[in-house]
Amino acid sequence: MCEARFKGKIALVTGGAQGLGEAVCRRLAGEGATVIVTDIDEEGAKAAADNITTEYGVCTLGMRMDVTDDFAVHTTMEMIERDFGRLDILVVNAGILRAYGIEEFPVSEWRQVVDVNLMGYMICAKHACQIMMKRKSGNIIQINSMWGKRGSARNSAYSASKFGGIGLTQSLALEMAQYNVRVNAVCPCIVLDGTREMVEHYAKTHGLTDEQMKQRYVDQVPLGRGCTYDDVTSVVAFLASDEAAYMTGQAIDVTGGQVMG
Ligand SMILES: NC(=O)c1ccc[n+]([C@@H]2O[C@H](COP(=O)([O-])OP(=O)(O)OC[C@H]3O[C@@H](n4cnc5c(N)ncnc54)[C@H](O)[C@@H]3O)[C@@H](O)[C@H]2O)c1
């Protein structure tokens, strides 16, 4: 890891209280960034921020921010601009998954998935861009999914919302290029580290043990192992760094070779 790649940088991560979002916060803080950990789970965001400060000795802030709430996002971004004078990195990670066959999918839940995964991305990007455009500098990274590039049976809302996220990424990249704001997405496969409930659910459905279920999944991965948080956060950190200065509008697969091209 490059120790201080993000020293002096201000980063905001959505859905940072747990899971991949928390891992992204840790990674950016570990490389020197001041991280604003946001989530609808206020206690979780504050706890994650406190733990990260203790562990890495960097300044963090934990606070509630619902990505679907335009006013709340606007207020948070205003606070960041006022208190820090800048926003260098926005990681749009907050996401939800609701899975049903289409014939039984409650419309309200389908809409909720699109609201958080796609509208939430638009709202956060809109307000972040207002700050970044003024400084002619910034970096937006959306945590997308391998299901943002191919369909997923009984998972249409999630897949559709993530496909939309790639369209948004490319469009924003075109709009923001003149302001030196880069916009990219990362498309991971299932992160076995953090999806115990999902593994348990599928194992039960298929009459397998959790370990057998994990193995069945790993057997489909050309690189022969499950995806870890580090696999994903390394790519996020790379995209957020100057090493990726000539990359914008990309959706990078982190799937152990399951998706190519
Ligand atoms: N875990 C995986 O295997 C995996 C694989 C590919 C992509 N992803 C993507 O990574 C991201 C994080 O996934 P995860 O598995 O860590 O999820 P998770 O459920 O563990 O964490 C998501 C976080 O987002 C927060 N959140 C939900 N709705 C929100 C809202 N409206 N506003 C703000 N915060 C909200 C939750 O409170 C939670 O803390 C998602 O976008 C997901 O689609 C995950």
Name of the CATH class of the largest domain: Alpha Beta
Radius of gyration: 18 Å
Count of structural domains: 2
Oligomer: single chain
CATH level 4 superfamily of the largest domain: NAD(P)-binding Rossmann-like Domain
Specify the structural class.
alpha/beta
What's the arrangement of strands in the largest beta sheet?
3-2-1-4-5-6-7
Bound compounds, each kind once, are:
nicotinamide-adenine-dinucleotide
Strand content: 5-15%
Overall spatial form? globular
The N- and C-terminal alpha carbons lie at a distance of: 27 Å
How does this model look, in words?
The model has no long low-confidence stretch (mean pLDDT 95). The chain has 8 helices and 7 strands; from the N terminus they run βαβαβαβαβαβαααβ. Strands 3-2-1-4-5-6-7 form a 7-stranded parallel β-sheet, with helices on both faces. The protein is globular and about 55 Å long. The longest helix is centred in the middle third of the chain and has 29 residues. 48% of the residues lie in helices and 14% in strands. The chain folds into 2 domains: 209 residues, 3-Layer(aba) Sandwich (Rossmann fold); 35 residues, no CATH class. Helix 1 packs parallel to helix 2, helix 1 packs across helix 8 and helix 4 runs parallel beside helix 5. By secondary structure, the protein is of the alpha/beta class.
